[in-house]
Amino acid sequence: MLTGVLVNGAAIIVCGVLGAFFIKGMPERFNEILTKALGLAITFIGISGALQNENVILLIVCLVLGSLLGELLNIEGGMNRLGYLAEKRLGFGEGSFSKGFVSSSVVFCTGSMAIIGALNSGLMQDHEMLFAKSILDGVIAIVFAGTMGVGVAFSALPVMVYEGVLTLGAASFRDFLTEDMIREMSAVGSLLIAAIGLNFLEIRSIRVANMIPAIFLPCVYYWILGVF
């Protein structure tokens, strides 16, 4: 059941290490243009996925409530502390490890492919989408690691935990998940991907990790709707 999750994690680790140690050292102007190119691509991917949404009001409410909940829990702060702790213990450059770890974790976790791929693995034992995601994540990991360092490779841990929980949860609650839930969860997640793209373009600095709870609020809405 977790085959797709493990392959995705392995792709991020291998490609992150390759990028950190074999691409690192490129001239700054190349790093900058690659970062901006990825920012544009990520923004486009996120907006394209968000257009699957069929309930704009629900999307707005989930983003607002989810962001407030995430800010209350300070998810991004916790991820930063984890990154800085690993950075200190492993002796990597100050700040770069944490930035690569947090940014990559959010990019790899919040997209629609992560959600739908993990749900497909849990519901139907179909790992094809996670295999395709592994290829895309591998390419992104190489470029990210070339600019932000080996912290990108360590983002495989939260990715595997996140996708693993979704996969096992889908298998356990397959009778409760509906097509509407999955579609709206994916739309919210895709919009967060677009926000990450804006961060890379340095248009705005958005604490995207604190918005992650918004992804799961459509489930709450449809469960409540089903009860009443």
Domain unit count: 1
Helix content: over 70%
Query: Taking Cα atoms only, what radius of gyration do you get, to the nearest Å?
Result: 17 Å
| Strand fraction | under 5%
Q: In summary, what is this structure?
A:
With 228 residues, this protein is mostly helical. It contains eleven helices and no strands.
Descriptive overview:
- With 228 residues, the protein is mainly α.
- The protein is globular.
- The protein is built from eleven helices and no strands.
- Helix 4 packs across helix 5, helix 5 packs antiparallel against helix 7 (128-148) and helix 6 packs antiparallel against helix 7 (128-148).
- The longest helix has 23 residues, at 28-50.
List the helices and strands and how they pair.
Blueprint: H1 3-23, H2 28-50, H3 56-73, H4 75-90, H5 96-110, H6 112-124, H7 128-148, H8 151-154, H9 156-172, H10 179-200, H11 217-227
